[in-house]
Here is the input.
Amino acid sequence: MSPTFRRQVLRKIPSVDDILSRKEILDLLSVHPRAVVVEAIRRGLGRLRKEILNRDNLSGDEEALLSFKNIFPLFQKEIDLQVQPRLRRVINATGIVIHTNLGRAPLHPLAINHMVKVAKAYSNLEYDLALGERGDRHFHVEEILCRLSGAESALVVNNNAGAVLLCLNTLSEGREVVISRGELVEIGGAFRIPDVMKRSGAFLREVGTTNRTHLNDYQRAISPQTGLLLKVHTSNFKVMGFTSDVSLAELVQMGRERHLPVMEDIGSGCFVDLTQYGMEKEPTVQDAVRTGVDVVTFSGDKLLGGPQAGIILGKKDILESIKVNPLLRALRIDKLTLAALESTLFLYLDEKRAMEEIPTLQMLGLDMRKLKRRGNRLLKRLQEKVKKGVQFTLREDVSQVGGGALPLQELPTIILSVKSSDRSVNSLEQGLRKADPPIISRISKDELVFDMRTVFDEEIPILAQGIEKALSQMNEK
Ligand SMILES: *Cc1c(COP(=O)(O)O)cnc(C)c1O
Here is the structure.
């Protein structure tokens, strides 16, 4: 194709103003802001220009290419790209229950309703209704937290990383914090205990070894500079073999003898003893509080199944000192989180109900019968519209808890695997991520797999549609 001809075609591209005067565009302008429509036209025409420049040959179809009928969908698409929120709901078919990248815990309907109520109107966030004067936002969840855990006092902040920072800063700024070398953990997302310690103004005093730490290691490290004895739950890994560590109870005893506060970062705090439901032992919040520990911290959106929050429980005098730390203002919890947290915590007053209804716990407790039924529903929908060369199989596999909790726990599950004879598993996985809503699946060897544990029953039709569509789009190309 001659450059002159290409230039001629490029010159025929309508201007933004030409396009804006079309009736079809007026319809768009009645729905979307003018700035969005104009930008969409600009970007759409840019695409068209690029296509003309990239074509090897144009002769014959430039008329069709430049027709309004052909270019109008480009504008529509560019509008969608602008108005669609960047933060979106997705379908989690990975089988990882507490998936940090996918937003951790989905909330219980009561928590969502509570958030909506508080969001829509004014609230008594920091107003004492009984006295008619300024109140404390932390007051709303303190009573329920103490009741569930047995702690004397409670406080909530933005997240557990913030809780740890705040506690270390309050209890040991300028002083040493004694911690076992086996507990200098990295949680992911750049949360490393030694780094947080440095930022808190406390000095790390590591004792023992990676695999073994004894009581007398702590004993020897204590000096007039010591401000705190710290235990961090190694929530996302396990050291196996020749190991030994000091229990929280032993540390608490030593703290009492040496007049030092003791803190534990539990990480994924859970109020339910999961061994009752066939899972591995994960120390509960109540277990920790019962040792008499001065302060414990954990997340609101891991095993607890609530919103992102950092929960601090402990002795009254210690919590009072934390409450007056100016850092608390920078880490404070917002009202929507507080609403969701309060409603989630309330569900724990009936443990059975919590296990059955809080989405995170409910997913962990799903049995094979329910998972199979869910898998069969999906399989049936897909087979009704099955394409040639696509193979669907239901089989057993294992899901993970995720979120730095129960790292060794394997949860038997049912997965649907999809294999297409003419499409690579990678392109299919990519296609599903572009679906609406996006579907996040898992590649296992040369198959794409969908774990039934983390897909909600009501998502099965959407998931089936998304898989079908992704498979057919691939086949068109
Ligand atoms: C997850 C975790 C944290 C960080 O909690 P966030 O709620 O993500 O801020 C801190 N410590 C431990 C042991 C954890 O497992």
